[in-house]
Amino acid sequence: MQVLVLNSGSSSIKYRLFDDSLTLLASGLVERIGEASGRAVHRRHDEGGPAELVEQAAFDDHAAGFRSLIAALEQGGLGEELRAIGHRVVHGGEEFVAPSLIDDEVVARIRAQVPLAPLHNPANLTGIEVAASLRPELPQVAVFDTAFHGTLPARAYRYALPTELYREHGVRRYGFHGTSHAFVARRAAAHLGRSLGELDLITLHLGNGASATAISGGRSIDTSMGLTPLEGLVMGTRCGDVDPAVLLHLHRQAGYDLDEIDRLLNRSSGLLGLCGENDLREIDRRARAGDADAELALDVYTYRIRKYLGAYTAALGGLDAVVFTAGVGENQPGVRARVCDDLEVLGIRLDASSNASADVGAAPDGVVAVHAADARVAVLVVATDEEREIAEQTLQALGGTVSRP
Ligand code: ADP
Fold this sequence. Notes:
Elements: E1 2-8, E2 13-19, E3 24-31, E4 38-44, E5 52-57, H1 62-75, E6 82-89, E7 100-101, H2 104-111, H3 121-134, E8 140-144, H4 154-157, H5 163-169, H6 178-192, E9 200-206, E10 210-216, E11 219-223, H7 245-254, H8 258-267, H9 270-275, H10 280-288, H11 292-316, E12 321-325, H12 326-331, H13 333-340, H14 352-357, E13 367-369, E14 378-382, H15 386-397
Parallel strand pairs: 1-6, 6-8, 9-12, 12-14
Antiparallel strand pairs: 1-2, 2-3, 3-4, 4-5, 7-8, 9-10, 10-11, 13-14
Bound molecules: adenosine-5'-diphosphate.
């Protein structure tokens, strides 16, 4: 039995194929859908065929992209045992706090969330509709980025805005990156040999997008992203927390219209806005070479994370472990060192050499401990795998048994 995980964007489809013990069999990407020259890359991870197949072609629409990936799987002798498709869906609103087996009603309910995620949910829906029409015999499951945060208490999810904005327009904190936070929390607990139910964790998903989550007993009790993935930590091109009056000021004093403000906050702010660069590898290199803007960008970025560590320790009323994950969290020891520097007050102290040499790719369980032997709080680097989590939740939603590797 195999499960295919699809992450459909506006002009791309990313996919991964797993067997029922969650071993990765194949992965790939169809991109520039709808453009004159598209590209597909198909990789397989078992021993059965060529490791990589690249296809340059025009993919008119998502259906053409989906056919390409199914053809690549079948050509490689994979896909015959395909039994289910799991879809990443960005926004489930308050409607979805668990994975859902997709039928017409679920599609309509996902569509009803589009105003909350106008850029993402329509693309996710296109993927669902294409897969359902081309492979109608397969059950399809929607797994939501927001669902893990369905356990937030009202004091964490409500903004101090008039109640009717919440009731009538759904204005509240939803949180994102939920599949990643859930996955790394479980991996961290397994690595520590403890039950998730007894742990207070702060998970830091630091990629291009970035969010922090406070997890008590396996339940998300607060998270830094809000109504949209713009709030909270400093990100590659997104500002994270700002005084909302900055928007009014920009409009009134500098003549920015709404679209310009949207672009500014989402695409030209964050690390990019502070130093003209959003790749932390390059920022790190520049900062080491004495570049003041890069140094400031790193300082603002890590200071924001440190503030969330303090706030979430208070929210949790204790702290057992901090988890670093995603591109930056897994691969940038300098960022981890700055975040954890001089935080003994929270029980956090790194072991400099474990931190510098941490290689999650080489760790059998994808987890490396980087705290000092006598530190009160564990600091773990955990390789995230959102697609594997979606595959697992898809199988669970279908009542399948999963043997975790
Ligand atoms: P996304 O949110 O798009 O999935 P990623 O999780 O890949 O993004 O994170 C992108 C960031 O991670 C970039 O700033 C990049 O500098 C950093 N990063 C990714 N891979 C590495 C690596 N191998 N070494 C150092 N930094 C990395």
